[in-house]
Amino acid sequence: MKRNIQDYLKNWKESERRKPLVIRGARQVGKTWVVDDLGENAFEYYLKVNPEKDSEIKNVFQSRNPKQIINELNALYGIPVIEGKTLLFIDEVQLLPDALASLRYFYEDIPGLHVIVAGSLLDHALSELPYSMPVGRIEFVYMYPLSFNEFLLANGQDGILNYLNEYSIENEMSEAIHNKLLQWLRIYFFIGGMPEAVKTYLETNDFTEVEKIQSSILTSFRYDFAKYGTRKQQEHLGECLDYAARNMGHKVKYVNVNKSANSASLKEAFNKLEMSRVIRLVRRTKSSKVPINQHIDNNTFKPLFLDIGLACNLGGIKLSDISNLITDFEGVLAEQFVGQELLANSQTFVDPKLYYWSREAKNSNAEVDYVVQVDNNVYPVEVKAGKTGKLKSLQVFLAEKEMDNAIRLNTDLPNFGKELEATVNLKGKVSKLSYNLLSLPIYMTQQIERQALKKFRHQE
Q1: Which tens digits make up the pLDDT trace of 191-231?
Q2: 131 and 191: one domain?
Q3: d(Cα 144, Cα 146) in Å, to the nearest integer?
Q4: How far apart are CA 185 and CA 119, in angstroms?
Q5: Do 200 and 130 reside in the same domain of the chain?
Q6: Shared-domain flag, residues 77 and 199
Q7: Residue 260: what are its φ and ψ, rounded to 5°?
């Protein structure tokens, strides 16, 4: 399965400004696979170090002399370590804090050597590193489950993917193309993008086998909880994990997680799950201009799960007959999908954040699912699981922020509404609103930036 990050890694290999690379991402999103592919196909020699398989290797990295480290690795593994010809990969590096510290010396003393490190729970290791981080001497990249586009490519849908990437909203899209994409979208909703689950689907076309893989991955996440604190803290992690899967896209209320638990303990559990990249917290913002993170409420957030397929599994949705499955979960899945796509299609070297907007007032609540930045402009994004739906909250946001461009994602054909009219009750005052609405099918989430730049640029 081709991953988008592979192109980035190839460019990193050839860059003269290259630094040791740290790949961050949740367990089993494909970090090791993409590095193996690069090492085996783009280098003359590939040296892979894994402290889980060789516990004695930690002694090698206690040295601060990278040339000594290389000599000892060469002696242990019998693989030449040559600048420009060898890729040195340290997997599960969270078990080797000394190796993380050594990256600065590789950069300073052997800049021509290609070095990559990766690992699960890496964010925890970085936060607990007993040494100062080698700031300015390493690069970070971020990995996620397969995006919908990568899923289409894995399923041999190159033609329809090329069509999407070249599509312009000025052109009419046929019902045949639209319906085919909706069919694939529905399959993706329940299989998700975890590489092993997708691979199993490709090889067996058996949803039961996919469920087995998803359950196994979730079990591995729970095993990780044993690494965190007391038994009570581990219980809170499990409770918050289950809650996140059932309440994607809904504001977290600690009393609904565990009525008897301290809210501070539950908040800590949510933060640890986010550090593990098992969930992502969508934080409330009041911003309508860049920087979008200038007015953040860190105490108010909605959870998203790492992967939509895993969330379905944890939520008890069976895959035996997804073609006829109609559930109240559909709206939640649509919002989860959009958030997951926004993350997966962000720039590889950026750790993106997700935001939403809400107003809680007596008889006047409003909430916009996402607030996104495109270039230096901010747009509200409303997500609908069907073809229709009211846009009251979106209109309230536009009126309050004195904006006139918005985005809707639903299951209808793409279209652009210019100078639409609406009546908005804002703070007890009724006012008229005129706005432009870019409406895209949910499966075009990754096209938001390209289409918004095209339609809104001359409006602003």
Answers
A1: 999 999 999 999 999 989 999 999 999 999 998 888 777 88
A2: no
A3: 6
A4: 30
A5: no
A6: no
A7: -95, -5
**One-letter amino acid for residue 243 of the chain:** Y
Angle of CA points 345, 336, 170, to nearest 5°: 55
pLDDT tens, 169-183?
989 999 999 999 999
* pLDDT the model gives residue 365: 85
Nearest Cα to Cα of residue 148 among 157, 135, 139, 136: 157
Any domain includes 148: no
Both 121 and 198 in one domain: the answer is: no
As a whole number of angstroms, the distance between CA 202 and CA 213 comes to 13
CA-to-CA distance for 98 and 101, rounded, in angstroms?
5
According to DSSP, the residues that pair with 303 across neighbouring strands are 281
**For residue 410, what are the contacts with CB-CB under 8 A and spacing of at least 6?**
383, 384, 385, 386, 387, 388, 389, 439, 441, 442
Q: Where a domain ends, among 93, 119, 142?
A: 142
CATH of residue 137's domain is: 3.40.50.300
Residue 165 lies in a domain: no
According to DSSP, the β-strands at 355-359 and 279-285 are: parallel
Secondary structure class of 297 (helix, strand, coil): strand
Q: What is the pTM of this model?
A: 0.93
**H/E run at residue 39:** helix 31-42
Final residue belonging to a domain, choices 142, 157, 186: 142
